Amino acid sequence: MTNYGEAGSCGRGQGVNIRLAELCIVLVVILAMSLTTYVRNVTWFDKYSMWDDILEKSESKGRPHFRMGLILYKDGDYEQALSRFLRAYELKPDARGLLNNIGLTYQRMGRFGEASTSYDRAVESGDSVSLAYMNQGTLYLRQGDLKRALSYFARSIESDPKNAVAHVNAGFTYSDLGMYGKAIEFHRRAAEINPYYANASYGLAIALEGSGQMESALREWRRYLEVGPKSGPWRQRALLRIKRLESIITSEQPENAVSGGALRR
Asked: What SMART domains does this protein's entry cite (predicted)?
Protein backbone atom coordinates (compact mmCIF):
# COMPACT_ATOMS: atom_id res chain seq x y z
CA MET A 1 0.00 0.00 0.00
CA THR A 2 1.07 3.56 -0.63
CA ASN A 3 2.73 5.23 2.33
CA TYR A 4 1.31 8.35 3.88
CA GLY A 5 4.82 9.51 4.51
CA GLU A 6 5.14 10.26 0.81
CA ALA A 7 2.57 13.00 1.11
CA GLY A 8 4.64 15.56 2.98
CA SER A 9 7.15 16.34 5.70
CA CYS A 10 6.45 15.48 9.33
CA GLY A 11 6.18 17.81 12.29
CA ARG A 12 8.46 17.87 15.30
CA GLY A 13 7.90 18.71 18.92
CA GLN A 14 9.86 18.70 22.16
CA GLY A 15 12.80 17.04 20.41
CA VAL A 16 10.65 14.10 19.31
CA ASN A 17 10.91 13.12 15.66
CA ILE A 18 7.71 11.92 14.03
CA ARG A 19 9.11 9.49 11.50
CA LEU A 20 7.51 9.15 8.11
CA ALA A 21 7.26 5.40 8.56
CA GLU A 22 5.02 5.86 11.58
CA LEU A 23 2.47 7.73 9.48
CA CYS A 24 2.34 5.10 6.77
CA ILE A 25 -0.54 3.52 8.64
CA VAL A 26 -2.97 6.19 7.44
CA LEU A 27 -3.49 5.10 3.86
CA VAL A 28 -3.11 1.48 4.83
CA VAL A 29 -6.08 1.89 7.13
CA ILE A 30 -8.12 3.79 4.58
CA LEU A 31 -7.60 1.44 1.67
CA ALA A 32 -8.03 -1.68 3.76
CA MET A 33 -11.35 -0.49 5.16
CA SER A 34 -12.65 1.12 1.98
CA LEU A 35 -12.61 -2.02 -0.16
CA THR A 36 -15.26 -3.72 1.94
CA THR A 37 -16.08 -7.31 1.09
CA TYR A 38 -16.72 -10.65 2.71
CA VAL A 39 -13.46 -12.59 2.56
CA ARG A 40 -13.94 -16.33 2.44
CA ASN A 41 -11.57 -18.80 4.03
CA VAL A 42 -10.12 -20.18 0.79
CA THR A 43 -6.92 -19.48 -1.13
CA TRP A 44 -6.67 -16.62 -3.60
CA PHE A 45 -6.26 -19.17 -6.39
CA ASP A 46 -9.52 -20.83 -5.41
CA LYS A 47 -11.27 -17.47 -5.24
CA TYR A 48 -10.00 -16.49 -8.67
CA SER A 49 -11.05 -19.81 -10.16
CA MET A 50 -14.47 -19.65 -8.52
CA TRP A 51 -15.34 -16.14 -9.73
CA ASP A 52 -13.79 -16.74 -13.15
CA ASP A 53 -16.13 -19.69 -13.53
CA ILE A 54 -19.08 -17.61 -12.35
CA LEU A 55 -18.19 -14.87 -14.83
CA GLU A 56 -18.33 -17.33 -17.70
CA LYS A 57 -21.87 -18.23 -16.69
CA SER A 58 -23.07 -14.76 -15.62
CA GLU A 59 -21.11 -12.27 -17.71
CA SER A 60 -24.09 -9.93 -17.92
CA LYS A 61 -24.43 -9.58 -14.13
CA GLY A 62 -22.59 -6.90 -12.19
CA ARG A 63 -21.80 -8.74 -8.96
CA PRO A 64 -19.30 -11.29 -10.39
CA HIS A 65 -17.35 -8.46 -12.06
CA PHE A 66 -17.40 -6.53 -8.78
CA ARG A 67 -16.09 -9.53 -6.82
CA MET A 68 -13.44 -10.35 -9.41
CA GLY A 69 -12.35 -6.71 -9.30
CA LEU A 70 -11.83 -6.99 -5.54
CA ILE A 71 -9.71 -10.11 -5.95
CA LEU A 72 -7.58 -8.52 -8.68
CA TYR A 73 -7.17 -5.35 -6.61
CA LYS A 74 -6.03 -7.38 -3.62
CA ASP A 75 -3.57 -9.16 -5.90
CA GLY A 76 -2.14 -5.84 -7.14
CA ASP A 77 -3.45 -6.15 -10.70
CA TYR A 78 -5.00 -2.68 -10.82
CA GLU A 79 -5.49 -2.50 -14.58
CA GLN A 80 -7.60 -5.65 -14.63
CA ALA A 81 -9.35 -4.71 -11.39
CA LEU A 82 -10.36 -1.37 -12.90
CA SER A 83 -11.65 -3.12 -16.01
CA ARG A 84 -13.88 -5.35 -13.86
CA PHE A 85 -15.12 -2.48 -11.70
CA LEU A 86 -15.98 -0.38 -14.76
CA ARG A 87 -17.83 -3.31 -16.32
CA ALA A 88 -19.74 -3.82 -13.06
CA TYR A 89 -20.63 -0.12 -13.10
CA GLU A 90 -22.00 -0.43 -16.64
CA LEU A 91 -24.19 -3.32 -15.56
CA LYS A 92 -25.23 -2.06 -12.13
CA PRO A 93 -24.34 1.62 -11.57
CA ASP A 94 -26.15 1.76 -8.22
CA ALA A 95 -24.04 -0.99 -6.59
CA ARG A 96 -23.03 0.19 -3.13
CA GLY A 97 -19.36 1.09 -2.76
CA LEU A 98 -18.54 0.59 -6.43
CA LEU A 99 -17.70 4.22 -7.24
CA ASN A 100 -15.41 4.37 -4.21
CA ASN A 101 -13.62 1.22 -5.35
CA ILE A 102 -13.20 2.65 -8.85
CA GLY A 103 -11.76 5.80 -7.31
CA LEU A 104 -9.37 3.86 -5.08
CA THR A 105 -8.13 1.85 -8.04
CA TYR A 106 -7.51 5.00 -10.09
CA GLN A 107 -5.72 6.41 -7.07
CA ARG A 108 -3.40 3.42 -6.82
CA MET A 109 -2.62 3.82 -10.52
CA GLY A 110 -1.70 7.48 -10.05
CA ARG A 111 -4.68 8.70 -12.09
CA PHE A 112 -5.71 11.28 -9.52
CA GLY A 113 -8.09 13.30 -11.67
CA GLU A 114 -10.19 10.26 -12.50
CA ALA A 115 -10.08 9.13 -8.88
CA SER A 116 -11.39 12.50 -7.74
CA THR A 117 -14.18 12.38 -10.31
CA SER A 118 -15.23 8.94 -9.06
CA TYR A 119 -15.39 10.17 -5.46
CA ASP A 120 -17.40 13.21 -6.54
CA ARG A 121 -19.86 10.94 -8.32
CA ALA A 122 -20.17 8.79 -5.21
CA VAL A 123 -21.10 11.87 -3.18
CA GLU A 124 -23.57 13.08 -5.81
CA SER A 125 -25.27 9.69 -5.96
CA GLY A 126 -25.36 9.32 -2.17
CA ASP A 127 -23.18 6.20 -2.28
CA SER A 128 -21.16 5.85 0.94
CA VAL A 129 -20.78 9.62 1.19
CA SER A 130 -18.61 9.70 4.32
CA LEU A 131 -16.27 7.15 2.77
CA ALA A 132 -16.07 9.11 -0.48
CA TYR A 133 -15.14 12.32 1.33
CA MET A 134 -12.53 10.42 3.34
CA ASN A 135 -11.02 8.87 0.23
CA GLN A 136 -10.95 12.29 -1.41
CA GLY A 137 -8.97 13.44 1.60
CA THR A 138 -6.41 10.67 1.13
CA LEU A 139 -6.06 11.77 -2.48
CA TYR A 140 -4.96 15.22 -1.36
CA LEU A 141 -2.61 13.63 1.17
CA ARG A 142 -0.95 11.82 -1.73
CA GLN A 143 -0.48 15.18 -3.43
CA GLY A 144 0.90 16.87 -0.32
CA ASP A 145 -2.06 19.21 0.22
CA LEU A 146 -2.60 18.46 3.90
CA LYS A 147 -4.91 21.37 4.66
CA ARG A 148 -7.26 20.47 1.84
CA ALA A 149 -7.13 16.86 2.97
CA LEU A 150 -8.26 17.99 6.41
CA SER A 151 -11.23 19.81 4.90
CA TYR A 152 -12.40 16.55 3.33
CA PHE A 153 -11.87 14.59 6.53
CA ALA A 154 -14.04 17.21 8.23
CA ARG A 155 -16.77 16.65 5.63
CA SER A 156 -16.47 12.91 6.14
CA ILE A 157 -16.94 13.31 9.88
CA GLU A 158 -19.84 15.71 9.39
CA SER A 159 -21.51 13.14 7.16
CA ASP A 160 -20.89 10.36 9.67
CA PRO A 161 -19.77 11.55 13.14
CA LYS A 162 -19.01 7.95 14.13
CA ASN A 163 -16.50 7.39 11.33
CA ALA A 164 -13.53 6.52 13.54
CA VAL A 165 -11.19 6.08 10.57
CA ALA A 166 -11.81 9.64 9.39
CA HIS A 167 -11.04 10.90 12.90
CA VAL A 168 -7.77 8.96 12.94
CA ASN A 169 -6.79 10.21 9.48
CA ALA A 170 -7.43 13.77 10.61
CA GLY A 171 -5.40 13.11 13.74
CA PHE A 172 -2.38 11.83 11.83
CA THR A 173 -2.58 14.79 9.46
CA TYR A 174 -2.67 17.29 12.33
CA SER A 175 0.41 15.57 13.79
CA ASP A 176 2.11 15.92 10.42
CA LEU A 177 1.39 19.64 10.58
CA GLY A 178 2.80 19.84 14.11
CA MET A 179 -0.65 20.61 15.55
CA TYR A 180 -0.49 18.02 18.30
CA GLY A 181 -3.32 19.41 20.40
CA LYS A 182 -5.78 18.93 17.53
CA ALA A 183 -4.29 15.53 16.77
CA ILE A 184 -4.85 14.42 20.37
CA GLU A 185 -8.45 15.63 20.19
CA PHE A 186 -9.25 13.60 17.07
CA HIS A 187 -7.49 10.43 18.17
CA ARG A 188 -9.25 10.52 21.53
CA ARG A 189 -12.59 10.92 19.81
CA ALA A 190 -11.80 7.92 17.60
CA ALA A 191 -10.98 5.89 20.71
CA GLU A 192 -14.30 6.93 22.25
CA ILE A 193 -16.12 5.70 19.15
CA ASN A 194 -14.21 2.42 19.18
CA PRO A 195 -12.17 1.72 22.35
CA TYR A 196 -10.45 -1.22 20.64
CA TYR A 197 -9.35 0.69 17.56
CA ALA A 198 -5.59 0.17 17.69
CA ASN A 199 -4.77 2.88 15.16
CA ALA A 200 -6.37 5.47 17.42
CA SER A 201 -4.03 4.44 20.25
CA TYR A 202 -1.05 4.48 17.91
CA GLY A 203 -1.85 7.96 16.62
CA LEU A 204 -2.63 9.27 20.10
CA ALA A 205 0.71 7.99 21.41
CA ILE A 206 2.55 9.78 18.59
CA ALA A 207 0.66 13.03 19.22
CA LEU A 208 1.22 12.91 22.98
CA GLU A 209 4.89 12.25 22.43
CA GLY A 210 5.09 15.10 19.94
CA SER A 211 3.51 17.47 22.44
CA GLY A 212 6.05 16.50 25.10
CA GLN A 213 3.63 14.51 27.29
CA MET A 214 6.03 11.62 27.70
CA GLU A 215 4.37 9.74 30.55
CA SER A 216 0.95 9.93 28.88
CA ALA A 217 2.52 8.79 25.62
CA LEU A 218 4.12 5.84 27.38
CA ARG A 219 0.75 4.78 28.79
CA GLU A 220 -0.82 5.02 25.35
CA TRP A 221 1.93 2.97 23.72
CA ARG A 222 1.26 0.28 26.32
CA ARG A 223 -2.42 0.53 25.53
CA TYR A 224 -1.57 -0.01 21.85
CA LEU A 225 0.23 -3.23 22.75
CA GLU A 226 -2.96 -4.42 24.45
CA VAL A 227 -5.34 -3.72 21.58
CA GLY A 228 -2.99 -3.82 18.58
CA PRO A 229 -1.51 -6.70 16.57
CA LYS A 230 0.50 -9.24 18.51
CA SER A 231 3.28 -9.31 15.92
CA GLY A 232 4.56 -7.34 12.98
CA PRO A 233 6.41 -4.07 12.31
CA TRP A 234 3.95 -1.74 14.04
CA ARG A 235 4.21 -3.65 17.29
CA GLN A 236 8.00 -3.60 17.02
CA ARG A 237 7.96 0.18 16.53
CA ALA A 238 5.73 0.55 19.57
CA LEU A 239 8.10 -1.57 21.66
CA LEU A 240 11.04 0.59 20.57
CA ARG A 241 9.09 3.72 21.49
CA ILE A 242 8.29 2.32 24.92
CA LYS A 243 11.93 1.45 25.55
CA ARG A 244 13.01 4.91 24.44
CA LEU A 245 10.43 6.74 26.56
CA GLU A 246 11.22 4.66 29.63
CA SER A 247 14.86 5.68 29.21
CA ILE A 248 13.96 9.36 28.79
CA ILE A 249 11.61 9.41 31.78
CA THR A 250 14.13 7.60 34.00
CA SER A 251 16.91 10.00 33.03
CA GLU A 252 14.73 12.98 33.93
CA GLN A 253 14.17 11.76 37.50
CA PRO A 254 16.06 13.83 40.15
CA GLU A 255 19.37 12.14 40.96
CA ASN A 256 18.85 12.47 44.72
CA ALA A 257 15.19 11.43 44.82
CA VAL A 258 14.31 9.40 47.92
CA SER A 259 11.60 6.76 47.67
CA GLY A 260 9.32 5.78 50.52
CA GLY A 261 7.68 7.87 53.25
CA ALA A 262 8.49 11.38 54.42
CA LEU A 263 11.84 11.98 56.12
CA ARG A 264 11.73 12.21 59.89
CA ARG A 265 13.95 14.23 62.17
From this structure: TPR
